[in-house]
Amino acid sequence: MGQRGEPRRVQAYDGELGAAVARAQDGDETAFAVAYRMVQPGLLGYLRGLVGEDAEDVASDAWLEIARDLGRFKGDGAGFRGWTATIARHRALDHLRRQRVRPRAATVLEQDVLDLPGPHSTYDQALESLSTQRALELVRALPRDQAEAVLLRVVVGLDGPSVARVLGKRPGAVRTAAYRGLKRLARQLGGPGAADEGVTDGGPRTLGESK
């Protein structure tokens, strides 16, 4: 894990991503393709957690908007990941509304004292396992606030403040949601932390339901 809880593999390519985005903004189509290849896997994983098998269609819509508005983006590689995640999320919610699947608003979490798990904890386990279809299905079964926090932190690789901006929530609420989601996921996957206090099953849910 790197600073601020970000996976080292994400931090390592943010400089390269930022440089590619800057060249793409100057009209370099090859650089835009590089940025796409770096961002798309995480973005697609996030969208699979939101809309399931429709993720690729929603991602295509998101990238059309990203390409159209690229000149308006200002920031570095990490900022670009957050910006693209925000656009993808809006397109996913539009998709869900068109399907008349209206997720219930996530419960406002008032507890700010919990932090994300540290090194050698469930975060690393989740990072390794979220590439599997089973793990993504488990994430989709989490309450919506937890599912989105986990996907944005672990799959997209955003830091806590960036996730808060994407979701329009307070950083403390995001930390709590991600912590609880990772703990629940670890238990369902049978890993360490499965019996930690404060993590309960409460039965199956679909994305959009909150505890």
Give the structure's gist in a few sentences.
About 65% of the residues lie in helices and about 0% in strands.
Describe the structure.
The radius of gyration is 17 Å and the shape is globular. It has 211 residues and is mainly α. It contains nine helices and no strands. The model is unreliable at 1-8, 101-124 and 192-211 (pLDDT under 50). Helix 2 (29-51) runs antiparallel to helix 3 (55-69), helix 2 (29-51) runs antiparallel to helix 7 (144-156) and helix 4 (77-98) packs parallel to helix 8. It is 63% helix and 0% strand.
Helix proportion: 55-70%
- Please provide the count of β strands: 0
The description of the largest β-sheet is: none
Q: In percent terms, what proportion of residues is strand? A: under 5%
Overall shape: globular
Low-confidence stretches: 1-8, 101-124, 192-211
What secondary-structure arrangement, pairings included, does this model have?
Layout lengths: L7 H18 L3 H23 L3 H15 L7 H22 L23 H8 L3 H8 L3 H13 L3 H8 L3 H18 L23
Helix pairs in contact: 1-2, 2-3, 2-4, 2-6, 2-7, 3-4, 4-8, 5-9, 7-9, 8-9
Notable traits:
211 residues; mainly alpha; 9 helices; globular; disordered N terminus; disordered C terminus
